[in-house]
Structure of DUF4355 domain-containing protein:
Amino acid sequence: MSEEKLFTQEEVNKIVQERLEREKRKTERELEQIRTEVPEGGTDYKKLYEELCKELAEREADEAKEQALLNAGFDQESVNRYKKYLDKVEEDEYEETAHFLFEHSPMNKKQSQSYADPSQKRGKSVWNPFK
């Protein structure tokens, strides 16, 4: 018959204590790694959050620009064309700038004037050097 090795209670306590200490050190190392850097293959959530906030702010600014241009009287096709002129303007000035753009755009019916060809003057001929 084979004899089994028997441990005393003190030996068992010592073995368990050593095992617990090893696991504790291992856990502390892993925790420290997580605190100091993003684990390999992980995601930097803070950076991702900042990028998403920036993208959201840009989308909201775009929507505000479009709404200001629509309120000024531009049609949807012209909104896309004139939106770039509001890029350098502060958000609180979108409406004012959009109205200014509309007043000076060809879409404004009040401003549009009919220009006549100068050669079509009635009764007077225009000098033509090639005749």
User: Anything to note?
Assistant: Residues 119 and 125 are 7 Å apart (CA to CA). Helices lie at 9-36, 45-72, 76-82, 94-103. The chain has a mean pLDDT of 79. The two ends are 133 Å apart (CA to CA).
